[in-house]
Amino acid sequence: KLTLNKTVVDEIWDDNPNLDHYQIRSVLGRFLFIGDDIFKEIESLSGGERGRLALLKMMLSDANFLLMDEPTNHLDIDSKEVLEDALIDYKGTLFVISHDRYFLNKVTDKILELTDEGIKEYLGNYNYYLEKKNEIIIEEDENTKTKTQVQLEKRKEKEKLRLEQKRKKDILTLEKMIEKEESIIKKLDEILCDSQIYDDPDKIVELSRKRENTQFNLDSLYEKWINLTEG
């Protein structure tokens, strides 16, 4: 409680006579009371200034536990920043009720959520709380999947596995066919390179056509093999 007919400096000094003049000015400066502001009568202060002064008195007290209900309501920006910095430096226990998410995120290291099942504790600031809540929602969504959905996913997975096994089998089959066609081309090339065949032009034409057809088949097999292996 503030004494309205006192000056700012007297209000603090009367409650803290152990502080010297420099210390008094220092703590008042932290709460934005600078220069001649410390000699103002409390009655002439704005609502935000009175709020800062009351907060300073509270922080200088011996209290090791603070209970605050919507402390940032009706505070101006400067007063809110002073409050946040003061509470961050506060060594005691702070229990605060607030809808100010930014404030909660900055000054708290534990969030208590009241639910129908009781109180849930989150060891972190407000961002941590939101992150964990999102994880819980995702987990609950997973747990509430219907039996039909689970069976459908199993069927999809089974079909995926079947197709993969078929793909591997088809690749092996193609590789054997490619090996066979390559062997045929190799033998045809050996025959066509033999000088004895030069005496039989018709045979050369026949073998050349056979090689051409075999090469065409081989190219087609290569294309299928590439498509399967890249898939």
Architecture overview:
- The structure is a single chain.
- The chain has eight helices and four strands, in the order αααβαβαββααα.
- The two termini are 76 Å apart.
- It folds into two domains: 8-108, P-loop containing nucleotide triphosphate hydrolases (Rossmann fold); 147-230.
- The model has no long low-confidence stretch (mean pLDDT 89).
- The strands form two sheets. Strands 1-2 form a two-stranded parallel sheet.
- Helix 7 packs antiparallel against helix 8 (201-230).
- It is 63% helix and 9% strand.
- A hairpin with a 2-residue loop joins strand 3 and strand 4 (118-122).
- The chain has helices at 8-15, 21-30, 47-60, 77-89, 101-107, 126-143, 147-192, 201-230, and strands at residues 65-69, 93-97, 111-115, 118-122.
- The radius of gyration is 42 Å and the shape is rod-shaped.
- By secondary structure, the protein is mainly alpha-helical.
Q: What's this model, at a glance?
A:
This protein has eight helices and four strands; from the N terminus they run αααβαβαββααα.
